[in-house]
Amino acid sequence: MTVRGIRGSFFDFIDDPWKHVGDEEASARFLADGLLVVDDGIIVSFGPYSDRAGEYADLEITHIEHRIITPGFIDGHIHFPQTRVLGAFGEQLLPWLQKWVFPEEARYADRQYAKDGAVRFFDNLLASGTTTVQAFTSTAPVCTEELFEEASRRNMRVISGLTGIDTNAPDYFVDTADAFYADSKTLIEKYHNVGRNLYAITPRFAFGASPELLERCAQLKTEHPDAWVHTHISENPAEIRGVGVVHPGADDYLAVYEKYNLVGPKFTGGHAVWLSNSEYKRLHDAEASVTFCPNSNLFLGSGMFRLGKATDPDQRVRMTFGTDMGGGNRFSMLAVLDGAYKVGMINNTLLDGSIDPSLKDAAEAERNKLSAYRAFWSITLGGAEGLYIDDRVGSFDVGKEADFVALDWTQGPPGADWHSTLIADGGDPVTMDDAANMLFGIMIVGDDRAVDQTWVMGERAYQKA
Amino acid sequence: MTVRGIRGSFFDFIDDPWKHVGDEEASARFLADGLLVVDDGIIVSFGPYSDRAGEYADLEITHIEHRIITPGFIDGHIHFPQTRVLGAFGEQLLPWLQKWVFPEEARYADRQYAKDGAVRFFDNLLASGTTTVQAFTSTAPVCTEELFEEASRRNMRVISGLTGIDTNAPDYFVDTADAFYADSKTLIEKYHNVGRNLYAITPRFAFGASPELLERCAQLKTEHPDAWVHTHISENPAEIRGVGVVHPGADDYLAVYEKYNLVGPKFTGGHAVWLSNSEYKRLHDAEASVTFCPNSNLFLGSGMFRLGKATDPDQRVRMTFGTDMGGGNRFSMLAVLDGAYKVGMINNTLLDGSIDPSLKDAAEAERNKLSAYRAFWSITLGGAEGLYIDDRVGSFDVGKEADFVALDWTQGPPGADWHSTLIADGGDPVTMDDAANMLFGIMIVGDDRAVDQTWVMGERAYQKA
């Protein structure tokens, strides 16, 4: 048993800031000088250093100075085998898949390529401050295996699963419903709840899943009710029309997944750009989740996620934020926050009634504004709630796994250093307001260069050179 | 006289790539192994190394290996005194100005603050690969003076001018029409065409300029017809409505500037998000320019610039790209290209007829796609044409000033290094297509970390640590 202490300035959340409009500080917790005590990777004590240090007289303490320590970032939607091809030119979703993505993903049928890719994938995640992902793989079981194997070696909490597609993909890439079922079964047995790995039944999207494939997903979910379900929903208008062709009886996109009893807790639909009011309401009622992937939605020209709609208290939908790397062109969840802020602001061009007073919705517009509180909650505790893993990660509560990031607010692209001196006279954060302003600077003026250290289960897994 | 040679892989433009749809290579020039010869800062020879090396037997040659060398980037719209306050939270244009910007800009009335700010401003620009800016200052003449003084010390080509506002700003910040006129005259005499400095008559925007102030601008332009004119136009819906209040007789935003004879060659209106068809046509006819500031338009929720409309061959408008730092949250023109690509793609969600087939405009949609050719042309030769300085900068033509950037395609955020190996087998670019693919990777997967060296007038002004 290794017991160790980490001393520093800690910032995490105890509640959803969208529930505290006008008093967001009530959702957060800031300890300018705190102590986190970790025993075998699990948080056993957390509080002000002055209160707690006495309890652990002989504790080995790592003092992380001049940093803000937050829980590790959670990426709710990322494509492992797109690591190398991120940021490919010039197409919207469907032709982009055909031209760039399927050929690269097909290479992950080779075990060595998948193994090497997994090393790079996790290296990139840790350098970005991301400690948990919900990840797509490919149709090749070895791709999923190598993802879980590398996650195990790094002791990282990962949700993933064989990514099924049996229609609207090239012959060299498609799976069959039966093979998908059999391979998924094998992988669930081998990896689900083994170490920190969790398994998600993963039909890629309704546009690429025949009724037979989704029938098999339903069977898997019945046989493994505690497994996750991860897919895409309503990303792109052409895709949505295509879903109507593959599943002719469905009233809308969500109805396809509902038909196969996939929509409930632990279900995540990525993107959710073009959801109807009815779909929002049904996702809310089902306690299911969606993922907001702003950089991908912009990069692929998919559309603008309605952040203020998803956070409507009358029908709040669980939510993660995601890179959607490689449709999103960055690995960094800080870059996701930059993009998410911009999408929220652009949505407000219409919602504040600027263009057409009849479109004015001041409450939704307010909810579109991504404050530092809303932003960092969304990629830590909020993301954990969206994935139904908030009993394990997402904050510094005792009993949770000690995944965290140390952020240096002075590091970033040209301009970040001087900007940071506007807050707290350039010193360390003294108040929660100081810390929140620094976090906003990190997500908007800074970038992944602010990630100084990333810790997994109480061990340092990345230190910036 | 210093004569020196720079050997390396050069990429620049000879024409507007939007004129070469389907054959963009015809607009560009790539020398995998080229030689640029500079005499006292001016390009005197440019061509393949094998052809030219013999002409200059005793030449001192700097060999820049494993880089793509492009002309220095041109930022058409940036606010010098917002260097420290970039990326301020939560407001659209008008309240953002009042809350964050005017208080910070007011500090530049202090000469020492302005001088220190200018050092940081140019340090940030050079680290971003930007060698020319068209910059706003503040209402304080010392702010403009210190910008030009620092530009002179660095021998950089800068267009700027005292930035007049006499209405819709706090008492501590407003100027008067008469003082603006007198101070502008003094500054024009002192700085215009002195060294590489060029002067722009700079009414901040019609919303903050009374008829009296614009009358004085007209007078200045009559008295100094070769001076530039730099302002804002149609950035934000609330601003546009406000212009109608300040200038009640005007038919539209552009008509205000037309009334005072400001619109013609060397006129730039920043943003131009909400221009009418008539305004586009009149800008075209006047041979005036607009600036596309995607990151600012997203960050402030201003709206989406119609790139495919501005590049309509029937009424092509001259165009620069700009950071609009600090409304734009990055100093880097590479980050501008990332944002510009995304704005173009989002525009196409409507234009490709996905949502409403009646909105389909395939030609405009095609023009919205920001290829590497269109992108790098826009921040080099295209930017120079937009500013009417293409006789001096923007390409490697003989007679131009030797401002350039050496880009390292392997450097960037997590993911950039492996991505770069997809092109040219990870080696140096051999063909123009290789180089263009690398440039696209730099702008989308990479960021300012790709800027390895920045040269001004044939001298290295920045070298990445």
Automatic annotation (TrEMBL), chains A, B:
Task: Write down the required cofactor(s).
Answer: Zn(2+)
Cofactor annotation remark: Binds 1 zinc ion per subunit.
Q: Does the keyword Metal-binding apply?
A: yes
- Entries under Gene3D superfamilies matching the protein: Metal-dependent hydrolases, Urease, subunit C, domain 1
| Pathway it works in | Purine metabolism; guanine degradation; xanthine from guanine: step 1/1
Domain of life of the native organism: Bacteria
Q: What class of enzyme is it?
A: hydrolase
Q: Name a biological process GO annotation.
A: guanine catabolic process
Identify the keywords attached in UniProt to this record, alphabetized.
Answer: Hydrolase, Metal-binding, Zinc
Q: Which GO terms describe its molecular function?
A: guanine deaminase activity; zinc ion binding
* EC number per UniProt: 3.5.4.3
Which Pfam families does UniProt cross-reference here? Answer: Amidohydro_1
* Residues of the Amidohydrolase-related domain: 68-459
**A Gene Ontology cellular-component term:** cytosol
- UniProt keyword Kinase present: no
Q: List the catalytic activities from the record.
A: guanine + H2O + H(+) = xanthine + NH4(+)
SUPFAM superfamilies per record: Composite domain of metallo-dependent hydrolases, Metallo-dependent hydrolases
Which family is it part of?
A: Belongs to the metallo-dependent hydrolases superfamily. ATZ/TRZ family.
Q: What is the role of the protein in this entry?
A: Catalyzes the hydrolytic deamination of guanine, producing xanthine and ammonia.
Protein name from the UniProt record: Guanine deaminase
Q: Which organism is it from?
A: Subtercola vilae
Taxon lineage? Bacteria, Bacillati, Actinomycetota, Actinomycetes, Micrococcales
Q: What gene codes for this chain?
A: guaD
